[in-house]
Amino acid sequence: MLTQDQLLALINSAIAFGTVIMLGAVGEILIEKAGNLNLGIPGIMFLGGIGGMIAAFYYELNGGASPVVGLLLSFGCSILFSALGGLIYAFLTITLRANQNVTGLTLTIFGGGVANFFGASLNTLAGGVGQISVPVTSSAYIAYTKLGYLGTIGKLLFAHGFMAYLAIALAILARHFLMRTRTGLNLRAVGENPGTADAAGINVTRYKYLAIIVGSAVAGLGGLFYTMDYIKGTWANDGTIEGLGWLAVALVIFATWKPISAVWGSYLFGFVYWAYLYIPGLSRKTLELFKMLPYVITLIVLIIVSLRKKRENQPPASLGLSYFREER
Amino acid sequence: MSTVEKKNREPMILMSKRGELLPAWKAWGIRVIAFLLSLVVSGIVIISVSGLNPAAVFATMLDGAVGTGKRIWVTIRDAMTLLCIAVGLAPAFKMRFWNIGAEGQILVGGIASAACMIYLKSLPTVVLLLLMIVVSMIAGGIWGFLPGMFKARWNTNETLFTLMMNYIAIQLTSYFVAMWENPFGSNSVGVINSQGKQGWLPNLLSPGFNKDYGWNVIIVLAVTLVMYLYMNHSKHGYEIAVIGDSENTARYAGIRVNRAYVRTIVLSGAICGLAGFVAVSGASHTISTSTAGGRGFTAIIVAWLAQFNSVVMIIFSFLLVFLQKGAQAIASAYNLSQEVSEMITGIILFFLLGSEFFVNYTVRFNGRRSNK
Questions:
Q1: Where are the domains of chain A?
Q2: Pick among 1.10.357, 1.10.10, 1.20.910, 1.10.3470: CATH of B69-333
Q3: Mutation target vs B (from A88, A252, A269, A302; most B CBs, 10 A cutoff)
Q4: S-S: B34 plus which of A112, A206, A327, B351, CB 3.0-4.6 Å?
C-alpha cells in the first residue's frame, strides 16, 4: 500500500496536472457554449505558455529581479498572446465563416510552431546559449504561504502556486456566469440556436467573439501555469502541451460541459495519469498502457453520454456550425 | 486582409452569398493572391525575428527543398505520404464525417508494418511487403471502424471519438516501442532490419535502397487514381456525395446511410493505415510516436482546401512539403529552430482558409454609392 507521504505526493501531482487541463477545459467550455468547437485549444495553450515565457525571459535578460513584476508582465503577455490566437480563430470562423474544425486544427499547428520556435530560439536570438530558464518569475508562481508547511492538511490544501486556486475560482465564476446571469443565458442561447437568439435581439456575432476571446485567454493560462509552475519556468520542445491541450478538450466532454465537473474531473485525470508511479512492479511497457487510461475513460464517457441522451448532458445544439443570418 | 477586417466592423458592409459560382479562374486567382499574401507575411515574420536578407532566405529554401537529387526525392517522398493521408481522409470529410483520427490510423498501420518486419522477416520480400500492406490497412480500418460504428449506431460525436483514438494509438505505439526497443535503454526502436533490409521498399530505378522513392510514388498515385474513380464514377462515391450534401435527402432516396458511414470510415482508416505502411517501410524504417508527426492533421487541411479534388490535393501536398523543407533549411542554415516551418505552415493555411470566404461570398460596401 501507499505510505501517507506517497499518497500526498500523488495527490499534489494530480492537482498540479489537473490545474493545467482545468484551465484549458474551462476556457473551451465558454467557447463551446457559444457554439464554437475550438480544436485550437492546444495551440492556444502553447501561445499562452510562450507568451508568458517571452515576457519573463526579456524581463530577466534585462536585469529584472523582482518576482512580482515578472509575474505581472508574464501574466499579461500570456493573456495577450492567447487572446490574439483566439481572435484569429474568431475572425476566420465567425466573420469569414471558415470551417471551425479545420481552422482550429490550423491554430493548433500555428500555436505549436510559434511556441516551439521561440522556445528553442529565444536564447539564440538574444545571443545566449543553452536552455532558457526564468527562475525569478517562476518563483513567484511557485511560491505558497506558510500554511503550506502545516502538517498533512497544510501540504494538501495550501502547498500550491496561486494559479491552482485561480483555476478553481475561474471554474466557479464560469459556472455562475453561465447559469446565473442574463449574459450567460444569452450566451447559451447563442450556442443552442443562434437563429432564435438573433431574433430575440441578441448580437450573435459579438457574443461569439467575446466568448472565444475570453475563453482563449482562460485556456492560455493553462499553458502559462504549465511553463511557470509545472515545469518551473523552463521550456521543453517535447509537445507535452499539445497532449495536455487535447486532454483539456477531452475533459470538456468528460465534464459534460459543466465547469464544476471540470474541476474534479481534472484532478481525477491527474490522479489516473500519475498513479502509475506508485504501482509497484509496473514494467515500462505496461506503464505506457496505463497512461492510456484518461483517454479511454473519456471515450467511455463520450459513448455513455451518447447512449443515455440525457438532455442536460448533451453538447450545445449548434456546436460546430457557422451562423450566417441570410442563410437561415 | 487586415484592412477588410477593419471595414467589416462598420455597419456599411454587406456580405452575401454569391448568386452564381465564381468562374474557376477567378476563384483560383483569389486563392493564389491569398497564398502570395501569406508568403509576404511569413517573409516579414522570418526577417523580423532573424534579420536576414529575404533573397538569401529564399535561395536557402529552394536549396533545402530541391537543391540536390537526394533532397528532391525526400521532398517527393514526404509529399506522397501527405497525399496518401489526404486521399484517405477525403471520402470521410466529403460525407461530413469528421475523421480527425488520421494520426492514430497512421500509427496503428505503422505498428502493424513494423511488427511484420520484426517477426516475419524470413518471408520472401514480395510476400512480406504485400502482407505488410494488407495488415496495415486492416489495422487502420479497425481504428476507423470503431468511431464509425458508434456514429452510425448511437450518433456518438465522431470528432471527439477519433481524437481520443489518436491518443490511444500514441500510447499503444509507446508500448510497442518499449517492447521492441533496440538497443536496450535507447527508448527507440532504431532502424528495423538494417542488415537484411527485409520489409523495406526497394528502389525503383536502381538496385539497393534509399536512393529513390519511386515505389512510394507508384503506390500513392495508384491509390489516388483508384480513389478518384471510386469517388467520381462509382455508386458508393455518389452516395458519399449525396450524404455529404444532405443526410435526409440520402435517406429519402433510399441510401442506407449508416452502412455508408461505416463503410466509408473503414476505407478512410484503411488508407491512412496504408500511409503508415508507406511511412515505415518506404521512409523511416522505424516506428515511433512521431511517425505520424502531425501529418494526420495537416492532411485534413490539404483535403479540405482542395475540396477533395485529387489533382489539387497533389499540388497542395507538394506545396506544403516544399515549404516545410525550405523552412527547415532556413532553420538549420541560420541556427533557428526547426519549428519555424510549422509556424509558416500555420500562417499560409490561415490565409487560404480565409480566402474561401471571398470565393463564396461577395462583399459590398454599402455607402452613399449604393442603390444606384
A1: 4-327
A2: 1.10.3470
A3: A302
A4: B351
Inter-chain touch B337–A302, beta carbons under 8 Å: no
**Chain B 179-218, CB below 8 Å of chain A: which residues?**
179
> Which residues on chain A are in Cβ contact (under 8 Å) with B361?
97
Task: For residue range A134-179, list pLDDT tens digits in order.
Answer: 888 888 888 777 777 777 777 777 778 889 999 999 999 999 999 9
* Predicted ipTM > 0.90: no
Q: Is the pLDDT score of B192 beyond 50? A: yes
Compare B50 and A109 and report the one with higher pLDDT: A109
E strand or H helix at A208, and its extent? helix A204-225
DSSP secondary structure code for residue A10 in this structure:
H
Q: How far apart are CA A21 and CA A8, in angstroms?
A: 20
**pTM assigned to the model:** 0.89
Are A215 and A31 a contacting pair, CB within 8 Å? yes
Alpha helical stretches, state H, chain B: 2-8, 24-50, 54-66, 69-94, 102-119, 125-154, 158-180, 214-233, 235-245, 247-252, 257-279, 295-305, 310-333, 340-360
Which positions 212-251 of B are in contact with A (Cβ < 8 Å)? Answer: none
DSSP state of A149: G
Domain A4-327 listed as CATH 1.10.10: no
Contact B340 A113 (CB under 8 A): yes
